[in-house]
Amino acid sequence: MILQSLKTLSLVGLIILGLSGCTTVKEYQKSRINDAEMELSARKSEKFEQNFYLYREGAAGANGGKSGGGCGCN
Amino acid sequence: MKKICLSVGLLLSLMRVGYTQPLDKPPYEPRKLKVDEINLVSSYYQQDGNKSAVTGGIGTEYLTDFAQSIDLVLKSTDAKNRQHSLAFDLNIDHYTSASSDKIDPLTVSSASRSDTHIYPSVSWSVHDNDRRTTQGVALSYSTEYDYKSYGVNVSFAKASADNNREVSLKAGAFFDTWKVILPAELRPEGYGSGAHGDTDPVDYKPRNSYNVSLSLSQVINKRLQVLFTVEPAFQQGLLSTPFHRIYFQDGAETVERLPGSRLKLPIGLRLHYFMGDRLVVRTFYRYYIDDWGMQAHTINLETPIKLTSFVSVSPFYRFSHQTAVRYFSPYGEHRSTERYYTSDYDISGFNSQFIGTGIRLAPPGGLFGIGHWQSVELRYGHYTRTTGMVANSLTLLAKLK
Fold it and tell me: Where is the DUF4266 domain (chain A) (predicted)?
């Protein structure tokens, strides 16, 4: 199963690298990319939602949320 | 013609003077550390259900959590024109859990029927614009009635020459300690309850977590960017919860027992697209697998709509599907011959949905005439899962700059 995941991971990585060749965007063309809503990390207001997913669902990680500390056991 | 030649000559000499200015002097003066941003977050969360792990997979899951968070970001620029950021983050959760009463119905003062969870952290990062690198370190601490955690994180990121691509690597470790509080009827002779004032001893067990995160972000075009993340994590120590009861098919009772290590592999992909002038589409997909037999798929879609330049509304929807760990069985269905057992529905198989919306106000002159109050955001979400649990979450964020 882990091997299968690594294959998926390599495939996605290759797709991204393939996409990376598309366009070179200059700094002055990034007005939309630099918009606050386009930020790639999770926003501050999502912080507590991510904490409760971490406690209430077994699958955690890879979304920028809290990844350790605290048992969340109640 | 002579005048034109003279003007061009003069301009060229001025430009030359400009270029021959001494380069050993930094273009910016060092700036002292000053407050750059303050975020205040308040959140209320409530859940209910009827499959509590404390009582072996039956009973109330009612829980409320009132959380407060303040983070303070200070910035400075040094003589080499590198930007230093120092961030302090303090979080305080006050929660009540109806099922915790059931750990020890006689004392009711047990574990965390009502508890305060405090977790401060401090982080420092340096961004070098010339080398396009950012490196940082963070320390964290977390304390609850029966649980303590110390954490350390280091990070490094490097951007491409055109700033369209960035690779980042993070590594973290959490060193935790459990106070082993057992259900009242399962305590050996002379074993303490863990309650204040009880002088009988209780055990303490470690739980350590290590994670590495590798991310690649890429600007695809003027409107589209992606982020790919792989975050393997490894845990070892006491991974079961000592006060979760288990009931076997023959009616016998014990506490939850799970393996002493767990390897997790979550893989995430974010894709954000700015459509037209008013709509942003934020998508997220995650695949998860671990060595306890759980697999999960999570998708998240959020579409911030800019009603005006200062007001946006962000409806969102999240769907998650996970399979149960191989040690899970419901109340009364475990066999006493099994090596590991849990009736914790958080690691059972289920589908969950989270739906809601956020509203954000960010007027240019500040809110309510306060120039430093840059924005306010209110977010509400309703969560349901196929185990019967429902939850509601309300979050308020105020940003000051």
Answer: 25-74
